[in-house]
Amino acid sequence: MTIPRNEPKPAIVPVLLCGGTGTRLWPLSRDSYPKQFIAMRGELSLFQQTALRISDRRLYRRPIVVVNEDHRFIAVDQLREIDVSPATLVVEPVGRNTAPAAAVAALHASEQDGDAKLLLLPADHVIDDEAAFTAAVASGLEAAGSGRIVLFGIEPNSAATGYGYIRQDQPSGAAASGVAEFVEKPAAATAERYFASGDYLWNSGIVLVAARQLLAELERHAPDVVNAARAALVDGERDLDFLRLGAEAFGRAPSISIDHSVLEKSEHASVIRVRCGWTDLGAWSALWEIGDRDAAGNVMAGQAVCDDSHNCYLRGEGILVAAVGVEDMIVVATEDVVLVTRKDSDQNIKRLVERLKRERHASAFTSRRVHRPWGYYESIQQGPRYQVKRITVKPGGKLSLQKHFHRAEHWVVVSGTAIVTRDAETLLVRENESIYLPLGSVHRLENPGKLDLDLIEVQSGGYLAEDDIVRIEDVYDRV
Q1: 422: Cβ contacts below 8 Å, ≥ 6 apart
Q2: Taking every annotated instance into account, which residue ranges of this chain make up the domain MannoseP isomerase/GMP-like beta-helix (predicted)?
């Protein structure tokens, strides 16, 4: 990697875009915990891998992270795990696609440094050759500094139909060549023609651009986007470690991508051809393509086994997936859903999830494990007038001070130590001890230790839904 010597400080402000729900990777990816926060391959989540990818402080400044309201504490915890400290963590009150998020980042970065250059990065991509990617980014600095919008086009290794394409106007010219055409996801025959020509690259969605140039392009091509972003920053407020955007103002922003709002209209777009082992993991078949296949072409993750099967992707999360005598199949099992599809049909999973959402099926939105700022809980069993949950509170975590109108609770500590507030009492509850919380009692649970606190909660009453919570005080500022 060659880093320009004339840069007095790290040149680039990375912007990690963490919107998206990864619907095509359902049932593992869901609204409450989307694919960017899941360890889809390896031990780290895609978000963590992206954050570490831009950790070289010779080239990159600390990142701006743009995250949805529902996922802000997940992002904080995952950054803390890898010892990455963001410059700013911007909270979107509603999802509005990538253009409003990029506009907010450009406005915020410009306030700090009028010459800032942004590297817009979706937080859910896989890049195997990170040295090649970093070298490509460094090579685009000069073009970005001269007012170009630098895109990174991935050299295709197949005639993929799941990606958008960019046609270069100078395929064999300079490192950053002009863009002749943007193409949406093509049909198979068209993709074959693109691949054979050598003139087309996959559109990675990664962009290097000076903040002031991006704002000028937004003002010209999408003024409603930048006006809403500017108002949302003015109405925003600091909340713990977050910059929370004004909800009403940000809600006025059109829901549109940076590609459709600016890149496809700009006269300043350039593209750098990159070969770096990139995929956006847009479908289960992509995980099969980059996975470690056995002699029969099968990729198995988690708890999975097969016999007389070929070219399959099998994944068991919590339960065993066993396949016999099948070919070209995807089977993914979580604790509450089993997905079965052919590899060539996995793009249709999004349509299935949309149907489940219309029918208000819980599995379309959340999984059995529900994440909270203090940890998570899992529903183990539910019946008439009772529910059993497992609750895990991370060290220092503290539930809200709350009460319920329709249920009583019984807590049994399995491991760790709990401090329990029950009306006027404050009690220390140790491993193998329990406490009863009558209906209507004001109570709170917190973990004062350095290890996770695990307990079993048994609820009893006529109404056991999560909206039977009256929060009296909450350190996480939830309603």
Answers
A1: 435, 437, 441, 442, 443
A2: 303-356
179 touches 235 (CB < 8 A): no
Sign of torsion, CA 228 230 231 233? positive
pLDDT at 255 over 80: yes
Domains annotated on the chain, with CATH:
12-279 (3.90.550.10), 286-358 (no CATH), 369-473 (2.60.120.10)
Q: Is 397 helix (H, G, I), strand (E, B) or coil?
A: coil
Instruction: State the pTM of this model.
Output: 0.89
118, 211 Cβ separation under 8 angstroms: yes
Nearest 5°: CA angle at 180, between 175 and 185?
Answer: 105
CA neighbours within 13 Å on the CB side: how many for 439? 10
CA angle centred on 86, ends 85 and 90, rounded to 5°: 145
The per-residue DSSP string of 48-87 comes to HHHHHHT--TTTB-PPEEEEEGGGHHHHHHHHHHTT---S
DSSP string, 264-286: TT-S-EEEEEE-S-EE---SHHH
Q: How confident is the model at residue 7 (pLDDT cuts 50, 70, 90)?
A: very low
Q: What is the pLDDT of residues 195-220, one digit of tens each?
A: 998 889 999 999 999 999 999 999 99
Task: Return left, alpha or beta for 413; rule: phi > 0 is left, psi -120 to 50 is alpha, else beta.
Answer: beta
